[in-house]
């Protein structure tokens, strides 16, 4: 969410007509972070005022998680029709109605929207004002005709697509995640600049829906993920027809609608449509943070307690510039309830935060990757592995391309990486283990139903005991003695 950018002279001119509001807590932004806090705080008895000048639900509901997963689901249906031969089902070429696929996307948004609606939050007792806001001093924000003074303020304005200053970009039509889901005409050839999670998810969804797709990445595609696992995803995407061009920096963009060329230092690529997916930027430009004494650069600076340099002001979610995931924003929103409502200390952790990329196969992570764990713990690290092709459910479903790695130090998991079917679901167990600092034995002792992919986690945990039990001369000696002398 952005904020009102009104000159001081205009604010002074409106003083006589403004309505003054005093509130316990002012929340700026009705995305995941803001809504999580507002719902909890209001139901616990706080007087909460919520500002939102754009769409309730923020980026996740309207432009991110929900629409992207709905489009991925449409692509998955088309892909299943083409790939049934190994199951004894004759493959057919699906007739894709791209506009209908987008209507499915909007149906998903519309179905979920009431959960984040103004009416629902007003039902909780939240005062909802549909305006942008800007600080005028350390505890006062002006939004439209309202001047709001609050004991505490929570900034939850989120992030928006980063559009880099590439020469020529402003001369051609292009899409971001905020606009691509409104495109109803099927792209013949979609160019995607950016090979991160958004770029790769949209690439696979579109190629499955019948588009030609080229991904242009300046570095390594999926470069922030474990390279061994990322390569499995990239191999599958290439096999489906996605062209992935790595090490190619976009130097210039030219052309017109229907014929757009991205000029890179390694060659040129021409397509009919262009999607920019190079990252995110914190929405702080219009907040006038200087008047509130809130330190920031490209994002708002916070401590582990999510408090800003102004002790009355907290910042949560994407606007802090950390891990930019909806579930992190929700976690932040819940975390600051403790200090704001009860005056008790609370800190946000990052070591237990999971995330997933919803390609097929999925890639999920929690805690440290293998490379990070080796750099931090050296020879104390043990890496447990288990392949999907040894799991009976994966074999039965023909989804054997994948593996799990669990990073363990002194019997305690510190990270898990999974690539394969339902990796995003499987990572939840490891997030629980790491969040509660459980030992590997807790997972090894679990009994998973057979046959499920969940057995992959149990079998990986069991690898910890292989050298300790099955390859130990001492254990074999003890067993031998017991068997010899046990009555």
TrEMBL record:
Keyword Transmembrane in annotation: no
Cofactor annotation comment: Binds 1 FAD per subunit.
Official protein name in the record: Mercuric reductase
EC number: 1.16.1.1
Family annotation (PANTHER family): MERCURIC REDUCTASE (PTHR43014), PYRIDINE NUCLEOTIDE-DISULFIDE OXIDOREDUCTASE RCLA-RELATED (PTHR43014:SF4)
Annotated S-S bridges: 60-65
Positions that bind FAD: 69, 133, 157-159, 318
Keywords attached to this entry: Disulfide bond, FAD, Flavoprotein, NAD, NADP, Nucleotide-binding, Oxidoreductase, Redox-active center
InterPro entries xref list: FAD/NAD-bd_sf, FAD/NAD-binding_dom, FAD/NAD-linked_Rdtase_dimer_sf, Pyr_nuc-diS_OxRdtase, Pyr_nucl-diS_OxRdtase_dimer, Pyr_OxRdtase_I_AS
CC cofactor: FAD
Sequence positions that bind NAD(+): 194-201, 217, 279
Enzyme class: oxidoreductase
Residue ranges annotated for the FAD/NAD(P)-binding domain, each copy included: 24-333
Gene Ontology molecular function, alphabetical: flavin adenine dinucleotide binding; mercury (II) reductase (NADP+) activity; NAD(P)H dehydrogenase (quinone) activity; oxidoreductase activity, acting on a sulfur group of donors, NAD(P) as acceptor
Keyword Disulfide bond part of the UniProt annotation: yes
Protein family: Belongs to the class-I pyridine nucleotide-disulfide oxidoreductase family.
Encoding gene (name): merA
All copies of domain Pyridine nucleotide-disulphide oxidoreductase dimerisation, residue ranges: 353-460
The organism of origin for this protein: Jannaschia donghaensis
Lineage, highest ranks first: Bacteria, Pseudomonadati, Pseudomonadota, Alphaproteobacteria, Rhodobacterales
């Amino acid at each position: 969410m952005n904020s009102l950018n009104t000159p001081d002279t205009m604010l002074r001119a409106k003083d006589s007509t403004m309505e003054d509001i005093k509130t316990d807590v002012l929340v700026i932004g009705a995305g995941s972070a803001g809504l999580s806090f507002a719902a909890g705080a209001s139901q616990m008895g706080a007087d909460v005022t919520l500002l939102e000048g754009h769409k309730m639900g923020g980026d996740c509901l309207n432009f991110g998680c929900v629409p992207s997963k709905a489009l991925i689901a449409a692509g998955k249906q088309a892909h299943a029709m083409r790939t049934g031969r190994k199951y004894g089902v004759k493959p057919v070429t699906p007739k894709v109605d791209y506009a209908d696929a987008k209507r499915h996307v909007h149906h998903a948004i519309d179905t979920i929207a009431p959960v984040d609606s103004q009416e629902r939050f007003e039902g909780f007792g939240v005062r909802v004002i549909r305006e942008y806001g800007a600080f005028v001093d350390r505890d006062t924000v002006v939004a439209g005709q309202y001047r709001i003074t609050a004991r505490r303020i929570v900034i939850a304005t989120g992030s928006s697509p980063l559009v880099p200053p590439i020469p020529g970009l402003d001369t051609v039509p292009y899409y971001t995640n905020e606009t691509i889901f409104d495109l109803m005409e099927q792209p013949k050839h979609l160019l995607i600049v950016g090979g991160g999670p958004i770029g790769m998810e949209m690439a696979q969804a579109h190629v499955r829906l019948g588009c030609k797709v080229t991904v242009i990445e300046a570095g390594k595609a999926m470069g922030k993920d474990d390279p061994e696992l990322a390569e499995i995803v990239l191999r599958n995407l290439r096999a489906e027809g996605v062209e992935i061009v790595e090490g190619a920096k976009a130097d210039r963009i030219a052309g017109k609608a229907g014929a757009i060329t991205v000029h890179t230092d390694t060659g040129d690529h021409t397509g009919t449509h262009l999607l920019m997916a190079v990252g995110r930027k914190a929405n702080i430009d219009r907040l006038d943070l200087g008047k509130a004494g809130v330190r920031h650069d490209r994002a708002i600076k916070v401590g582990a307690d999510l408090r800003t340099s102004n002790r009355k002001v907290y910042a949560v979610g994407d606007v802090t510039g950390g891990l930019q995931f909806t579930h992190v924003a929700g976690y932040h929103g819940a975390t600051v309830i403790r200090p704001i409502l009860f005056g008790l200390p609370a800190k946000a952790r990052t070591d237990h935060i999971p995330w997933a990329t919803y390609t097929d196969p999925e890639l999920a992570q929690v805690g440290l990757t293998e490379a990070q764990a080796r750099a931090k713990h050296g020879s104390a690290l043990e890496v447990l592995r288990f392949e999907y092709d040894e799991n009976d459910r994966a074999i039965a479903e023909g989804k054997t391309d994948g593996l799990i790695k669990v990073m363990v130090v002194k019997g305690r998991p510190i990270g898990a990486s999974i690539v394969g079917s339902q990796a995003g679901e499987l990572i939840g167990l490891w997030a629980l283990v790491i969040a509660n600092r459980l030992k590997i034995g807790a997972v090894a002792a679990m009994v998973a139903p057979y046959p499920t992919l969940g057995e992959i986690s149990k079998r990986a945990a069991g690898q910890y005991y292989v050298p300790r039990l099955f390859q130990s001369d001492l254990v074999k000696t003890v067993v031998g003695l017991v068997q010899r002398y046990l009555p």
